[in-house]
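Researcher: I'm comparing several assemblies side by side, and this is the next one on my list. It has 1000 residues spread over two chains. Same procedure as the others: predict the full complex and return the structure.
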Amino acid sequence: MEGISGEACSLAGHWGLGKLIALYDDNHISIDGSTDIAFTEDVCKRFEAYGWHVQQVADGNTDLAGIAKAIEAAKAVTDKPSLIKITTTIGYGSPNKANTAGVHGAALGPEEVKLTRENLGWPYEPFVVPEEVLNHFRKAVERGAGYESEWNQTWATYRQKYPEEAAEFERLLRGELPADWDANLPSYTPEDKAMATRKHSEICLNAIAPKLPELIGGSADLTHSNLTELKCSGDFQKGQYQNRNIHFGVREHGMAAICNGIALHNSGLIPYCATFLVFADYLRPALRLSALSQAGVIYVMTHDSIALGEDGPTHQPVETLASLRAIPNLLVIRPADGNETSGAYQVAIQRRKQPTLLALTRQNVPNLAGSSAANVAKGAYTLVDCQGTPDLILIGTGSEVSLCVKAAEVLAANGKKVRVVSMPSWELFEEQSPEYKASVLPTGVKRLAVEAATSFGWCRYADATVSIERFGASAPGNVCMEKFGFTVDNVVAKANALLG
Amino acid sequence: MEGISGEACSLAGHWGLGKLIALYDDNHISIDGSTDIAFTEDVCKRFEAYGWHVQQVADGNTDLAGIAKAIEAAKAVTDKPSLIKITTTIGYGSPNKANTAGVHGAALGPEEVKLTRENLGWPYEPFVVPEEVLNHFRKAVERGAGYESEWNQTWATYRQKYPEEAAEFERLLRGELPADWDANLPSYTPEDKAMATRKHSEICLNAIAPKLPELIGGSADLTHSNLTELKCSGDFQKGQYQNRNIHFGVREHGMAAICNGIALHNSGLIPYCATFLVFADYLRPALRLSALSQAGVIYVMTHDSIALGEDGPTHQPVETLASLRAIPNLLVIRPADGNETSGAYQVAIQRRKQPTLLALTRQNVPNLAGSSAANVAKGAYTLVDCQGTPDLILIGTGSEVSLCVKAAEVLAANGKKVRVVSMPSWELFEEQSPEYKASVLPTGVKRLAVEAATSFGWCRYADATVSIERFGASAPGNVCMEKFGFTVDNVVAKANALLG
């Protein structure tokens, strides 16, 4: 019923995933009772429409041979995924609860278990494994040992024949990165031209992709907006499974779930996926599972503020950063420029037990004096400092760091002692020692945070904010930024107000 | 491609919505280029599988008569929704951009517009409306006037024949509530037995439903967990459209989107929908649109904390409340007991330009001395006070308010002056006057917030929290609560630590 199944299964059909066999236990019961009250579509026909090979087993309660036969037939179809619809009775054998929602979410209970055993002619005590069953499973284990030894043989031959490829494969299985994987990540000086951090992200992806064959991913129909194409590879398509650019279509939820699958498969693959930041909502259930399941998926989320402009409030994230920072075990990084984007990728690629979400600008941002890739790993650092104890600390993230730098210059010209802290990641900052944290954000110094998003949560670090407490608006990006107060004048005014 | 279309269209087929006609502009282009790179399913077959009536128009560029004929045929089918797949060329007529993604998200530009006009033989200047077109639209307007006068005639007759029903219908169109709509909302005293707030919610829904025929809704396959059934009505099903209990199936996203449609239809209907609180993620894109579009949908979200127990971290909201409070124009209410649940419904039903989300417990909570339905509208209020200026304010929400009351008793017995504030809604509290806010939460008094959720955002109101900074765990609900520190002892310890 869930839409995500439609997204993922349509892609499975498109890709012709012949090794995928789904057994659909069609027992006609969900929590509310018979599925007839909400679900009367023709599922087999729908899966045929997706391009699947579809079979039905009419009596899944007793026709085990029929199920086995259908699985064999599904294996024989190698250019399409297979659905086997198996009609069963939920709670089969229970005299009083079979075919009811009562057995969907609750246990039968001791009395009904007893009646069911009697009804099915099962004479054994609980936890007794009859000889016949034991033998059956022992045979399966023996068969497995045979398969394993066969595989080991094959692998040994392969290893001898292709030592380089074998070493790479083994590296992947160990989850190790090659020593020089990040050697080509670029660094920048203020003389380098202003670029969008999404563009820096594209450069990073293409700097590491040739050294990391395990990097695979793509966008939900926004490839040339998210800038996520790997130039060193073709498109992952039916029959072209060696390629690494995945076109997910407009299917954000399916995209993130597929990336979870790739990350948790223990094959060493590093999946990334992409859409606009505001559409994080569309994949949020799978993103939560990335965090909960420790899946090292990299979320490349561009167009990260009202500065994206004309598309208006439906496309402009405002509450999105806060809602993401609230998720346990999710790393959110909003880099300020080219160096910080390189630093963000250094962190994201190395964190294999944690998803990382990159919030990237659509618009150009300058390369900042003092910005640092290495400091991204610390979450926050002093970008511009003053002599002695500051009167005020301006904390910026992403595209607002350069605004903080300019405002600090004006404030300094007016005799204020101002420090600028760039804070690409709250979560990474929280990992630091209390000493480091106090060195960047000493207590007793007033702090003003500047971020083109809601202030929700910022009270943890700041006494006041330049922020947005409503949905955005449709206008050119620079007009939006100005109208919402992301100007040097307004930051200076807010700073002076805070200083009293 | 998006899963939500599958959810909604499967329901439309199930319900046999014969008045729904969808024109599918099949131009084979999405932002990334040809849809062939990600979308090769048989859409017509999929919609047939959903139970739709399906037609195709092969040449939507020029065959206008074919489109008109298909629409007439679709109208004639009254027991099924209709899909008309119309194959077109995107940017039809443009010599250089037709049939490319270049015309999906960008304008043609003046030069290409000129070429397109020439190519299509359109001799008029921009913004000139030729006589023929003007006449065509004038005829349509005249036809519309005829239809309107016909309708007014019908309505006048109906009004005369059924004055009571007509008055009710006109009330709905005016968006007014009947004077005594909330007369049967219950109130409670501490002597009344402890109940889950989801149970209180069920009582509220059934207390107002007979007086509010416009109340319509249901659950995403959790009816008997969310407790959202209206006893005064049957199930909304094919041919039984007079009924008000909707079974959405396991389709949270489609459910919320359908409720947005109902709320924005200006028919006066008040939609509600329901699932577990943690699954707010699954409908979040539609919930954001409720807030952005000012749709007065009521979200009945039960099982609102780790106290739900065994289902474990996949089902236990931790970051969910924070992520919802961050959304502009969304009202989040977490009532503490029966009175506050009645108060929550009073607010939710009356707010027709704003969605309201109710966070409700699975577990029983006591009815509190001093709790008040009316005070819910203030967002926060003093539930238990001390003599003079408090040393400490304990702020609780929902199921943790009773814990605060007990902890306050222990602290008071140890000579501390403690106030307990029940804070069912941050957003409603923020609407109050500065004087009221200062009277409930005076500055200079230490505050400890207690909520079985992340502390994210609580720094706005509290100096410290008893909260959860990780995903939950699978154990009986009371064990979870104890292990995560939601005990009188721990609250008292944290309070004493805060008081130094």
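Model: For your comparison table: The mean pLDDT of chain A is 97.
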